[in-house]
Amino acid sequence: MLRGIREQLEETPQPAPRRIFQERRRITGLPLYFQGYLSVRHSRCQEFRVYWTELRGTMLFFYDDKKAPTYSQKLDISALTSATNVHPDENGSARFILMLSNGELELKANDCECRKEWKGFILTVTKLSVPPDESLLPGQLTRMHEVLEKEKKRRITFNDCSSASLSRKSPPSSMLTPMPECFYAVSRQEAIEMLEKNASCGNLILRPGSDSKNYAVTIRHELDAPHLKHYKVISKGTSYIIELERRVTLPSLQDVVNYFVTQTRGNLKPFVIQTCTAEDPVF
Questions:
Q1: Is 158 found in the same domain as 218?
Q2: For residue 218, which of 226, 233, 206 has the smallest C-alpha distance?
Q3: Beta carbons of 213 and 13 less than 8 angstroms apart
Q4: pLDDT confidence of 169, banded at 50, 70, 90?
């Protein structure tokens, strides 16, 4: 296992409001297509939880607060099977269900009009086609066609960058590389709780560090008893430095994750919600 690591982590401060959009774009690496409040409920949960939600590319990012710079949950909807309406509840809020390869997720918009927009934009980016919904207004259809063209161009650019990276010795800039799947915008204590309650998902979480520029790694591994460690990862230019007794410099956050996995011979596994057992809720 790794040795001689210093624990140097603090609570993550929020950036000024004017930087929120830029910070979200930097962290997610994806363009914003649609946003608003959504109530979210996993199929195995009884209660909804309200999130400020952003549709970026084919990902949904859920924020605990409208002004939070980093997301608390994310969901890949690229393999969406269907989006089905649920009859409005007694409060008039409009619900719909996203059917995904690993289960279903129930969402509740503020009203039926909002539900119509959310479904329309989600189907547009996942199916690469504006849905033939006669109830959509001309303005809504125009925006969805604009998003459709942006998503097509994004995928072409992403595929070109992926192909080019195969022929280069050095990896692409982190601005063009998606965040590792084990990144979660959680505090140190929240990361500990996630690892303790969902052991089947993995035992390594990448999270924000002491400021919006740095990161931290929290791990939980079994020795004679469960053991927790925290590692500071400093962002410097296009590189990332793991603060060990002898610093390790790597070109990307994914390489940081891979380093921990390799150095522990696979004893550390990235914490990924999709790999949980059927009994572990997504939210």
A1: no
A2: 206
A3: no
A4: very low
Q: How many residues does the chain have?
A: 283
Q: Are residues 159 and 207 in the same domain?
A: no
Q: Are residue 61 and residue 161 in the same domain, yes or no?
A: yes
pTM: 0.55
Q: 107 - beta bridge partners?
A: 40, 96
Nearest to 276 by CA among 215, 201, 178: 201
Tally of domains within the chain: 2
Per-residue pLDDT, 245: 85
CATH code: domain of residue 267 = 3.30.505.10
- Alpha-helical regions (H) of the chain: 20-28, 112-127, 138-166, 188-197, 253-263
Domain harbouring 68, CATH code? 2.30.29.30
- Calculate mean pLDDT across residues 39-62: 86
Q: Which of 160-164, 182-186, 193-197, 259-263 has the lowest mean pLDDT?
A: 160-164
pLDDT at 167 over 50: no
Greatest Cα pair distance in the chain? 64
Specify the DSSP element, H or E, that contains 192: helix 188-197
Ramachandran class of 281: left when φ > 0, alpha when ψ lies in -120 to 50, beta otherwise: beta
